[in-house]
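Exercise: predict the fold of this chain.
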Amino acid sequence: MARGISEAPATDLEPDQSGIRLFGLWFMPGLTRGHGWSFIALSFTTVGLLTAITGVQTNVLSENFGIPARDQGQWISALVLWTEFVLIAVFGLVGVAADRIGRRQLYAVGLAFMGLSYVFHAYVGEIWQLFGARVVYAIGIGAATGMLGTILADYPQEVSRGRVVAVSGALTGLGVVLIKLMFGDGARVVVGSLGLPEGSALTVGLLLIAAVAFVATVVAAWGLQPGTPTEREERPPVRELLTAGVREAIKNPRIAVAYAGAFVARSDLVILGSFLTLWGRFAVESAGMAGSEAQAMSVRPFAIAQAAGLVWIVLLGFMLEKRDRLLALAVAFTVSTIGYLGMWFVDDLLAPGSIPLLCMLGAGQISAFWGATTLIGREAPKASRGTVVGAFNLSGVLGILMFVALGGVLYDRHGPAAPFIMVGFANLLVMAAAGGLALKESRAAAAAQRAENAA
């Protein structure tokens, strides 16, 4: 029978009392409180260390290479694409290493590489060195973020899984905001209090981020549960992802919509992180700011957008949990469409009047990402879950490659708002597809119910 739009089914699970409990969250038996606290600390830092690069890259190009922000669009695209190509190359190796040497060791190595990459960024003097630093960064995030997802799946009991994911997401958002502010305002405070030269703000900010990464390295190396997984994770090859993943999408249109959502939503975060910070740098240069003041103000619009997303995720989590996932995805992409297209109306990114639009942008980005992720989590069949989720992730990678490449060209030729308008229209298409499918399913369910009543 066709599905209608309904509330998501509730679960009725009992916790395993032999596991530990932190803040009302139940973790698997065998884990200690130290493991739980380490997981919480790493949820706070890992993604913040990943996204900090978006503020770093535009300031390095401006300060170390003298490239004005108005001309950086294609440079930013090249750096992001380079990172994605390296990530594609290392992801398979990361999976094998996790099975062979253990998850906490690989997590620690990834965080250490991220810290080293920020140190290298502080002292680059040639473009090839900048791309080399991005190789180190890509290896780091490939290992660290992969292991964060793994322990997020392994540590919570099923009774607390939804709340653990929500708490981890909230900590992630908070960490992103605070690490960005540490790079900007934190560096300015250190430079001012120690009487350092204005030109040292970039180096100070990068070393502060690196210090966070090295502390997180210690937490991962000694705080997480030791050992390797008892079962090897199956990793379908790309050819299987393209064939079996497409077959499942043909059988279930909801999976096809989820793939489309991933294609757009994964690039939403990269476009927001890379080009909003670049737009911020352009705005501060246009306002005549320089040094630590310019560095602090350039990352502030991104921090505002992320903070708004952090608040919005609470309401979004309720909607995703209690309502049909397809309808929730349609609503999520509606918010995202409004947020990205709304950037057309921003004249001065640093003016107070831009704050509501930045808040909508942050809410839209996080809506699209979690809307697509929760839909594929519900629809992926157990027999082929690995293949479907792999195809979902591959769709996201392809979206990043396409939208970032186009975004840099549009930024340089048509101005800072152009990449956001492009993504806004892409979000509009996904919203229409999700809404149309939801309406079709609802009408089919109503027709089936009328036929059943007539019989």
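Check your answer against the key: The first helix runs from residue 33 to 51.
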